[in-house]
Specification:
The protein is built from 14 helices and no strands. By secondary structure, the protein is an all-alpha fold. Helix 7 runs antiparallel to helix 8 (101-110). The longest helix has 15 residues, at 2-16. The termini are far apart.
């Protein structure tokens, strides 16, 4: 693998200064990411200086498997300033997989009104893949003012994390008359199980609306 890695790095470097070969650089970067070797980290950092936006976005995807934690941290400021949608999605995934508690704090700071809604939606998607305890930390400041389906989604995370507020909210929703809200609440129980809401879940299962 190291021999193949060196070939990829040389190929990228040879093509780097030639605008007509931007696709070659992009393809080598994607191959680097697929090999999942941190020895590509220096090359990926160099590629962040490439004039092609497409190349730079490919780097964010390669960081998931082949970037070092420090490089993921280094690129955090670019999340809102120079990444496109795919680049942001890739970076958030890299942060979730590589940065642990640091990612939780980063995600929490991104869930504010000044951050564009599409970015917050991506953060929510990645948050739902974290442990419920981490998800609860990210969502806890949003909980009091959340509404509708988003409130129920957060309630599911809170419930799975053992927070009574989420369990109570889901319980009230399951006892309500809004069928769609009940169905959505039931789905949120998949993460942490019904727990103390088991009786209500069984009653709904036996008497579907």
């Amino acid at each position: 693998p190291e021999d193949a890695a060196e070939i990829l790095i040389q190929m990228m470097d040879r093509s780097f200064g030639q605008p007509a070969f931007a696709d070659v650089v992009k393809n080598t970067i994607e191959a680097m990411g697929q090999m999942e070797l941190e020895l590509f980290d220096d090359a990926l950092r160099r590629a962040l200086e490439h004039p092609s936006l497409v190349v730079r976005q490919a780097v964010y995807g390669a960081l998931v498997g082949s970037g070092k934690d420090d490089t993921v941290r280094l690129t955090y400021p670019a999340l809102l300033s120079s990444m496109d949608g795919k680049g942001r999605q890739n970076w958030l995934r890299a942060a979730r997989l590589r940065l642990g508690d640091e990612a939780v704090e980063m995600f929490r700071k991104l869930m504010v009104p000044t951050v564009p809604l599409p970015v917050r939606d991506m953060v929510v998607q990645e948050t739902m893949k974290l442990d419920p305890e981490d998800g609860a930390l990210i969502f806890e400041e949003l909980w009091p003012n959340a509404e509708g389906h988003f409130k129920t989604l957060i309630a599911g995370v809170m419930h799975a994390a053992g927070r009574t507020s989420g369990t109570l909210w889901l319980g009230e929703t399951l006892n309500g008359e809004d069928v769609q809200a009940v169905v959505h609440a039931m789905r949120q129980l998949e993460m942490g199980g019904p727990g103390p809401l088991m009786d209500r879940v069984l009653a709904l299962s036996n008497h579907p609306r």
